[in-house]
Design a protein that fits this description.
The protein is mostly helical and 418 residues long. The protein is globular. Helix 5 crosses helix 15. It has a single domain, classed as Growth Hormone, Chain: A (Up-down Bundle). It is built from 17 helices and no strands.
Length: 418
C-alpha cells in the first residue's frame, strides 16, 4: 500500500501532516481570546452586538467547512494530496495577513470566510494518513494527529491571549508566519502519497456537492451508521467551543486567565492520552472497543461538567474528557477500512462536511440553551443545560456505535494498475 514512499520520507511526511494539523488548531485556539475582542473593537465595545457578530462568524466558518471539504477531498483523489495540502496551507498563511490588516468588520468577515475554506485541509490530511499507513496502524497515526489538537489548544489560547494583550493584530501575523514556514517545509519535504494509477479517473462534481458527498457514505455497508456516530459526537463536542467562556464566567465567575488555565489543563490531558494511550489501547482493545470506551468517557465527562457544583469538581471532568481521544482514531480506522485508496479523499471530505454541519448547528443550539438556562436559573436551577444536552447526544452516539460499529476486512484498492 505505502511502498511508494520510503520509510524515512514517510516519517517526514507524517511529521508535515502533524505540523499542518497543529497549525490549524493553534490558529483556532488563537481565535478564542482574540477574535471576539477584535470584533468588539469594531462595534464600539458593545458586548451584545459583538456576541451577535461572533455567532455569525462561527456559523459562516462552519458553512465554509461544510461546502469546501468535499471539494478538497475530491480534488485530492483526482490530482493527489500534495498540491491540495500545499495550496491550503499557503492560503491559510495569506488569509491571516489579510485578517491582520482588516480595516473594517466586513473585511474581517471575508477573512473568516477564507479561513473556513483553507482550514478544510483536514480532509486531505486524513486521506494522506490513510495512504501512507497500513490499516492496522492507522489508529495510532490518527492518534498523533489528535495530539496536535491537544498541543494546539494549549499554545493557541496562551499565545493569542498574551500577544493580544499588547495588540489584537499581532497573533494573526504570528499565525501567518507559522503557516508560511510550514508551507515552505512541505514544499521541499512532502512527497506525494497517491500515485497516478490509484487516483480517480475523472472529477465527479456530484460527489463534491456536500450533500452529494454523503452518497459515498450510503454506498458502503455500515459506513453511513459510522458517519452518524461521528456526526453526533462532533455535535456534542461542539458545546465548549460555543459556550465555554460565557458558561464558566457565569457559573464560577472566571475571567480570561482562569478560563485559559482550564484550556491548558484540557490540552495537557489530551496530549498525554493521544501520545501514550491511544496506540496501546487500540492494539489491546481493537478499534471498536477503544471507540466505545472513548464515547462513554466523553459522556461521563460532560455529565460532570454539567452538574459540577465547584471549580474543583469541574476540573475532574478533564480526566474523562481526555479519554475521548480514543474516539477519533478508532472510528477513523473503522471507516477507512470500508473504502479503497481512490475514495479516501472523498470519505474524509464527507467527514469534514459533517464537522462543518456540527459547527453550523452547534453555536445556535448551545448558545440559545445557555441563554434560556441563565434566564430560568431561578426556577430551573440548571445552568449546565446545554452541556447536559451534549451529553445526551454523546450517549445516542454511543448507543448507535454499540449496535452497528463492526470491524470489516480492508477494501482492496480497485484502482491499482495490474
Amino acid at each position: 500500500m505505502s511502498g511508494e514512499i520510503s520509510s524515512r520520507r514517510r516519517k517526514a511526511a507524517v511529521g508535515f501532516i502533524f505540523a499542518t494539523a497543529l497549525m490549524d488548531i493553534v490558529s483556532m485556539g488563537i481565535m478564542i481570546p482574540v477574535l471576539p475582542n477584535l470584533v468588539k473593537s469594531f462595534v464600539g465595545g458593545d458586548t451584545a452586538r459583538a456576541a451577535d457578530y461572533s455567532m455569525v462568524f462561527a456559523i459562516t466558518w462552519g458553512l465554509m467547512q461544510f461546502l469546501c471539504s468535499p471539494v478538497q477531498g475530491m480534488l485530492s483523489d483526482r490530482f493527489g494530496r500534495r498540491p491540495i495540502l500545499l495550496m491550503s496551507v499557503f492560503g491559510l498563511g495569506v488569509d491571516y495577513v489579510f485578517m491582520a490588516l482588516a480595516p473594517t468588520l466586513a473585511w474581517l468577515f471575508v477573512g473568516r470566510v477564507i479561513n473556513g475554506i483553507t482550514s478544510a485541509s483536514f480532509s486531505t490530511a486524513n486521506a494522506y494518513i490513510a495512504d501512507v499507513t497500513e490499516p492496522q496502524n492507522r489508529a495510532k497515526a490518527y492518534g498523533l494527529i489528535g495530539a496536535a489538537f491537544g498541543v494546539g489548544f494549549i499554545l493557541g489560547p496562551i499565545v493569542g491571549g498574551w500577544l493580544g494583550s499588547y495588540n489584537l493584530r499581532w497573533p494573526f501575523y504570528l499565525s501567518a508566519a507559522l503557516a508560511l514556514v510550514n508551507w515552505l517545509y512541505g514544499f521541499f519535504v512532502l512527497p506525494e502519497s497517491l500515485p497516478p494509477e490509484r487516483r480517480s479517473r475523472t472529477l465527479d462534481w456530484r460527489s463534491a456537492n456536500p450533500l452529494g458527498s454523503l452518497n459515498l457514505l450510503a454506498s458502503k455497508p455500515g459506513l453511513l451508521l459510522l458517519a452518524a456516530v461521528y456526526f453526533l459526537y462532533q455535535l456534542a463536542h461542539n458545546v465548549f467551543p460555543s459556550i465555554f467562556v460565557l458558561f464558566v464566567g457565569h457559573r464560577f465567575g472566571w475571567g480570561p486567565k482562569e478560563a485559559s488555565f482550564m484550556l491548558v489543563a484540557t490540552g495537557v490531558a489530551s496530549i498525554i492520552v493521544q501520545a501514550t494511550l491511544v496506540g496501546p489501547a487500540v492494539k489491546r482493545l481493537g478499534e471498536r472497543r477503544a471507540m466505545l470506551v472513548g464515547l462513554a468517557s466523553e459522556a461521563l465527562g460532560l455529565a460532570i461538567y454539567a452538574f459540577a457544583p465547584t471549580p474543583l469538581t469541574f476540573y475532574a471532568g478533564v480526566v474523562f474528557g481526555a479519554l475521548s481521544g480514543l474516539i477519533g482514531p478508532g472510528l477513523q480506522g473503522l471507516m477507512t477500512r470500508r473504502v479503497d485508496g481512490s475514495e479516501q479523499g472523498r470519505l474524509q471530505g464527507a467527514n469534514s462536511a459533517m464537522v462543518g454541519i456540527a459547527a453550523i448547528i452547534g453555536p445556535g443550539l448551545y448558545l440559545s440553551l445557555l441563554a434560556f438556562a441563565v434566564r430560568q436559573e431561578g426556577t430551573l436551577g440548571l445552568p449546565g443545560l446545554p452541556i447536559l444536552v451534549a451529553c445526551f447526544l454523546c450517549l445516542i452516539s454511543l448507543a448507535v456505535a454499540w449496535r452497528f460499529a463492526r470491524p470489516v476486512p480492508v477494501v482492496r484498492d480497485t484502482t491499482t494498475a495490474a
